[in-house]
Amino acid sequence: MRITVFGLSISSAWGNGHATLLRGLFRALHAQGHSILFFEHNAPYYAAHRDATSLPYASLRFYDDWESNIPSFKQALEASDAAIVTSYCPHGAAACDLMLEGTPGGCRRIFYDMDTPVTLSRLLQGNPVEYLPGDGLGGFDLVLSYTGGIAIDELRNRLSAKRVATLYGWVDPDYYCPVRVRSDFASDISYLGTFAADRQDKLETLFLDPACKLPSKKFLIGGAMYPDVEHWPANVRYLSHVAPPEHAAFYSSSPLTLSVTRGAMAAMGYCPSGRLFEAAACGTAILSDWWTGIDYFFEPGNEILIAESTEDALGVLLKDRAALVTTGARARERAMDCHTAAIRAARLTSLIENPVDDAEGNTSDHLESKLPAMAEGKI
After folding, report:
1. Which pLDDT score is estimated for 361?
2. d(CA 347, CA 353)
């Protein structure tokens, strides 16, 4: 297949979780015989932090302004078997309109919301979502959601999507696997993630507060845009950025890593981050907050460890290291069996060939309990 994608940024992973994920997916699609053309706006922020200017498995085309490039966009769409717009595409609404108005009938038109809970939370609060077309998603042949559960119903009900299917996160095992411990990343527990206000409370509860109580343990955070780092406990070391080629070493250099979920995602459930699968693929034991559906991806207590309080986190941090190694090995086995980029790429091409509506992970009762808090902006 020839697949054209309009998305956020694939050239820079700086504060951008889409880049690492899409690189892995495109690499797997290329290995399966498909060709990818990715259009990226030449945004100054990402240009200043670019870690890739070309890719061996996809054609990457930068553009400076939308209007003057419409002819080349149309030409690409006319030659495509499938066209995809992702959430947070800088010209998402325009790309959707162009695709829906001018795409040949043989080309599948797909919207992939890689941030579904954030999209729906903003809609519930009455805020604009710039990357969505004004009349919803009803014109697409298929709407893909990075999360399942109640998000599937909401995409149908609020955005008129006709066919919705999950395309959960994944890991590229060629880049995420156990590697030698690096002394500059060595710690008792690590956390890799960009600052987000709606997960900061959990980060403090499960990471920073335990650091205060266990001064002999080494804590390591990697991620951009954190405020007030100078007030963190002395045994917490901070790295403002960890480049994707170093992620495997980052995870492999600690027996335990933390995963915390953004509030809107946890409220929706069935919301595994790409980091969850990447850490698992490195054989590192994962300590996670609880959200509905986590047991669909890893078995709690066996393949993943759950904490809701500082006391829970302390209990895990004081576990025997051998027990953590065993948990990490089980997580890696599950990730390799169920959550690789190749598996998701095969699912994507199958859905392109035969778009279906997917009720996987549907939990409508859970939705009713969360909608008022989401609408008030509390989640």
Report:
1. 42
2. 10
